[in-house]
Every structure is written in C-alpha cells, then in structure tokens.
Amino acid sequence: MGRKPCCSKEAGLNRGAWSSMEDQILTEYIKLHGEGKWRGLPQRAGLRRCGKSCRLRWLNYLRPTIKRGNITPEEEDLIIRLHSLLGNRWALIAGRLPGRTDNEIKNYWHTKIAKTTKAQQIPNVTTNQPISEAAQLHSTEAIKPRVVRTKATRCTKAVIIPFLAQDGLVHNNEPAAAVAAGPTTSRSSMVDHDDEYGKTSAGTESLLSPLMMISEKENEMSCSFIRDFDFELEEHLLSDFFNEDLVGFPSDFENRVEINDASRKSEEKLLLTSEDELLDCSDLQTMAALIDSDLDWLQVLSKTL
DNA sequence: AATACCTGCAACCGCGACTAG
DNA sequence: ACTAGTCGCGGTTGCAGGTAT
C-alpha cells in the first residue's frame, strides 16, 4: 500500500510550536466548518501546517471541551485501573475520562505514575485501597497487565431494550438509552460515535456525557464497578464492556450473573445484534444475565436523559 | 549568577486500520 | 480483490521552564 510521505516534510510548512494566530485561524475554521477532512484543511483554512498537525493541535489543545488543570486523584485511580486492564491504549482510556486527551493521559502516565511507582510490586487491583496508595503500588515494569484487546466488530443495528422498572414490569416507552444507542462499532464506540452523537472531546463524550450528568452516587458506582471487576471474565466480554458505556453498572454484578443465570434465555431476544454477524450464544447469555442482573443504574440513566 | 540537570508537555513520526473507487 | 487516500493511535522527540549545584 503506497503511502505518501508525511505531509510535515513538505517544503514551506510551519513546524513546531503553534502561534496564537495559527490557533485562532484553526479554531475559527473548525467552528465554521467542523472537524474532519484534515488533509485539505490547512489549505482551506490558510494555514501553513500539515493536516496531521492541525488535527493534533485541535484534538489535544484547542477543543473547547478539553478539561484544563491537574489530573485529580480520582482520575489518576481510573487511569491506573484502566491501564491495568487495557494496557497502553491511551485513546480508549481517555474515552473514560471526559475532557482528557489520550496524549495528556499518556504523558501523565509516563511522567507521574510509571515513574513514581517503578520499584513497586504488582498491586491488588481488586482491593479497595485508597487511590493514592493504589497509585503508588503500580509499576509499569512489574505489572503484566491483563490487557484486553478489543475486537473490531461492527454493529450497525440496535434493539431498544424495554425499560424494566423496579416493579419488574417492562416499559417500552422508556428505553435504556445507554444500550439502545444507535449504530456503533464495538472496537471503540466512544470514539466512533462522533458523527451520530455530536462532536466530542477526542470522541470521548458522545455517550459518556449523558452518563456524566448522573449523580455523584452513580459515578461512584462506576468506580466500584471498575474496582471490583473480575478479571477472570472472558476477554471478549470485558472488551465489550469497555466499548460500551456501562457506567454505573453495579459493582457486584458478577455475583448477580450467577444468581440470574436461570433468567438468561428470556432476555436474549432483547440484546444488541450485529448486522454482519450475530454474537455467539455465550455472549448473548452472559450479556442478558448482566442486563437482567440489576437495572437500577439504567433507571437512573433513563430518568436523567 | 551561571551552568547542568530534570520535568512536563506539546508536537512529530510512522504504522496500521479504515474507506472509497 | 486490490489500490490509494485518509485518519487515528501509540511511541518518541524536542523544548521550555523549573530546580539543584
């Protein structure tokens, strides 16, 4: 596959730090015309930069949704835990941290977390240690992360899952928004939804934003979910979880999976299906059980939206 | 005050994935 | 099925500012 040489090597193009004027031009252009078409953007906008450079500058610095300021201890803890699960998949990790960019997280990891914990041993991720302690216990050298590699399975069709209220009745007019969220790819749904769900911060907020509006209690639930996640779950299942925005999933869902084992089959028909290939039966069963296990978080979400 | 070293961050580079023709 | 163009990601580099000597 013939690939053109990097455009940054073209003669006459500016390189290095961006000037405020360049920032302004780029920002104004994107405000008017939107993101995308990076290759031709510099020419159209009148910038002497390569498209790649423009994209990077916008995504990592100029976007209005970017959160400034230091990484909070909560964010740090989340980064650590996600890294132990996903490895150096910074874009995916950034997808769980609204307003943070993959570059920022990557830099943070290299400069703070990895460095300060080099000599430490493998932490017990499943314990409820205080955040700072958990951070100190992490070591990039020592950790052999149980990295989850997501599969690029495209899902172009979604089934609305009827809302199940606490009374146990199904309410078709109250869909569980997080699950019924239109066409998606399981590879990185939070990234790929940009077009369907509006502009995001590095594609990080498309589905996450609504979820971030839920109460602090629910956010806490999501932390617990990650903290208590059982790494022995099947890899592809875990992968699917991180590619969907199941924030707020109950922390003890694994136990509930077993409890609700008997009710799995009845829910199978409600699950997401792929146009290209159906999920295999075990996936369906497991997912059905998970959804069946506790719908409180969906309730909260549904009411929020 | 001058210099060397360290740190954090922005930017660059190259590759693989994706898509359209 | 194949090719070419484009995009996105992860690794790496370079530099500015801070700190130590």
Beta strand %: under 5%
Overall pLDDT level: 54
Distance between the termini: 45 Å
Helix count equals: 16
**Rg over CA atoms:** 21 Å
Number of strands: 4
Main pleated-sheet profile: 2 strands, antiparallel
Task: Report strand order across the widest sheet.
Answer: 1-4
- Low-pLDDT ranges: 1-6, 121-305
- Tertiary shape: elongated
Query: What is the element string, with H for helices and E for strands?
Result: HHHHHHHEEEEHHHHHHHHH
Helix/strand structural class: mainly alpha
Helix content: 40-55%
Count of distinct structural domains: 3
Descriptive terms for the model:
single chain, 305 residues, mainly alpha, Arc Repressor Mutant, subunit A, 3 domains, two-stranded antiparallel sheet, two-stranded antiparallel ribbon, 16 helices, 4 strands, 46% helix, DNA-binding
Task: Please provide a written account of the structure.
One of its GO terms (cellular component) is nucleus. It is found in: Nucleus. The chain has about 300 residues and is mainly α. It folds into 3 domains: about 10-60, Arc Repressor Mutant, subunit A (Orthogonal Bundle); about 75-135, Orthogonal Bundle (Arc Repressor Mutant, subunit A), CATH 1.10.10; about 155-305, no CATH class. The chain is about 45% helix and about 5% strand. It contains 16 helices and 4 strands. The protein has helices at about 20-35, 40-45, 50-60, 75-85, 90-95, 100-115, 130-135, 190, 195, 210, 215-225, 235-245, 255-260, 265, 280-295, 295-305, and strands at about 155, 165, 170, 185. Strands 1-4 form a two-stranded antiparallel sheet. Helix 4 crosses helix 7 (about 130-135) and helix 13 (about 255-260) packs across helix 15. The radius of gyration is 21 Å and the shape is elongated. The termini are far apart. Mean pLDDT is about 55; it is low at about 1-5 and about 120-305. The structure holds a DNA duplex (21 and 21 nucleotides).
